[in-house]
Amino acid sequence: MTSIPKFDSIKPKEILLGVTGSIAAYKALDLVRRLKERGFEVSVALSRGALEFVTPLSFAALSGREVKVNLFDPATEGQIDHIALARRADLYIVAPATANFLAKAAYGLADDYPTTLLLATEAPLLIAPAMNPVMYQNPANIENINRLKARGVTFVEPGVGDMACGEVGVGRLAEVAEIVAAVEKILGAPGPLVGKRVLVTAGPTIEPLDSVRFISNHSSGKMGYALAEAARALGAKVTLISGPVALAQPQGVERIGVETALQMREAVLAYAHSQDMIIKCAAVSDYRATVLAPRKLKKQAEWSVSLTANPDILAELGKTKPAKQVLVGFAAESENIVAFAQEKLVKKQVDLIIANDISQPGLGFKADQNQVWMVEKDQVTSLGPLPKDKLAQKILAWILAHPLLGPRLL
Ligand code: CTP
Q1: Cβ pair 268, 315 in contact under 8 A
Q2: Which residues are annotated as a binding site for CTP?
Q3: Best residue among 263, 264, 271, 312 to mutate for probing ligand 1, ranked by most atoms within 8 Å of CB
Q4: Where is the Flavoprotein domain (predicted)?
Q5: Could you tell me the strand order of the sheet in which 154-155 lies?
Q6: Pairwise CA distance, residues 201 & 89, whole Å
């Protein structure tokens, strides 16, 4: 068991990755994936040479962030992005690093994004060179590497093997796993939820009345999606079971789309047992049509619909939950928030209810901000109001710092 992190102190580590113009640049794509999987956030800057081998779009898709190429881009450099990026980094990696990059780095030249970041950052530096073996052994290159080592730069030494140019020798970019191991040696343990499975449900369910009409609710899914992303950023393997929402699939999260409460129940039960934590954020429709009209019903002066209660998925989970699993429910309340949430806590046998006041304009359903109450049997803590992404991070940090719930996850 690792030590319990301090509430509020859990933020994913920020890595800056500079990619320069080597045939091995494509391996940096895999590096971004592996680092994200381990719970790191990654911002990428490419040299002009790198653009000959890989595209900014590939890195943007994998990192989920804008990729930096042009130091003189008026759209972003108005806020002097390269300085902001350099300040935010916990580690700056350059992989693959060419002989040209190493020479510029050794002498403090800054004529592109990766070299400028190098001068502008105070973060530790990790360089993984890749080049032809003769170029690697060239005394000028060796001198540059030694200069950088003398300044405290860590190197992930290139490997021996067949080179893309057909020669054999030292110069192949180190394996991605080796680079990741070197990163973790410098930055310490990655996200506290690495190796843990977290299931989040989000959005509304919709319950058809006939082939075109349905009943549903106003849930936008934003809070659940923010929680899924925040858990992923802490290193968890996240499954998101989502009703119909207008939100993009979060990076690195497995999403299962469902429509009705019964479909959501089936998906949740299939995954529930293997999860370390389940957060049931979805606004499940409490009722479905007792009889589903097979086609569109014609208009008539009155229409009475008979509704049947849907099974309560959270209560089912509460009954069968493994002892170590953390089970979290949400409660949407418009009055007596804490008292009603405490009733749900007991009735559904969950560890925690996160209650929102849905009567507050600008908060909760559909809104970008939310305020919640973390409701336990004998204690209530209020978090927010905050934007939902920040609130999601705070909720998870609170759970991890909780004296009973945190140790079950760490
Ligand atoms: N929930 C569920 N299955 C249902 C209804 C609700 O799993 N059929 C879960 C929700 O995902 C949420 C919690 O139960 O985590 C509370 O949902 P909420 O709608 O606030 O409460 P209800 O139990 O439906 O009670 P009420 O509508 O009477 O307040």
Answers
A1: no
A2: 286, 296, 311-314, 330, 344, 348
A3: 312
A4: 13-184
A5: 41-46, 14-19, 91-97, 125-129, 154-155
A6: 32
Which residue in 165, 212, 291, 346 is the catalytic one? Answer: 165
The per-residue pLDDT for range 5-20, each reduced to its tens digit, is: 555 556 778 999 999 9
Residues facing residue 19 across a β-bridge: 46
Which one, of 16, 28, 77, 86, lies nearest residue 53 by Cα?
28
- Residues contacting residue 138 through CB under 8 Å, at least 6 positions apart: 99
Question: Is the predicted pLDDT of residue 124 greater than 50, yes or no?
Answer: yes
| β pairing state of 352-357 and 369-375 | antiparallel
CA angle 17, 18, 22 (to 5 degrees): 125
**Pairing relationship of beta strands 159-162 and 168-172 according to DSSP bridges:** antiparallel
> Is 405's C-beta closer than 6 angstroms to any atom of ligand 1?
no
User: Mind spelling out the 3-state secondary structure of 245-297?
Assistant: CCCCCCCCCEEEECCCHHHHHHHHHHHHCCCCEEEECCECCCEEECCCCCCCC
pLDDT given at position 330: 97
162 contacts: CB under 8 Å, gap ≥ 6: 168, 172
Domains of the chain and CATH, by start: 14-187 (3.40.50.1950), 197-409 (3.40.50.10300)
Tell me what pLDDT residue 9 has.
Answer: 53
pTM of the model: 0.74
Compute the distance between CA of residue 16 and CA of residue 92 in angstroms, rounded to an integer: 5
Residue 38: CB within 6 Å of ligand 1? no
Distance from the alpha carbon of residue 278 to the mean position of ligand 1, in angstroms: 14
15 neighbors 183 (Cβ within 8 angstroms): yes
Confidence of residue 1 (pLDDT cuts 50, 70, 90): very low
Give tens-digit pLDDT for 346-401.
999 999 999 998 888 777 677 788 999 999 999 999 998 999 999 999 999 999 99
Q: Is the CB of 282 under 6 A from ligand 1?
A: yes
- Dump pLDDT digits (tens) for 149-160: 999 999 999 998
State residue 6's pLDDT score: 56
| Model pLDDT for residues 176-208, shown as the tens digit of each residue | 999 999 999 898 767 789 889 999 999 999 999
Cα–ligand 1 centroid distance for 348 (angstroms): 9
Query: What is the pLDDT averaged over residues 138-164?
Result: 93
Average pLDDT value for residue range 104-116: 97
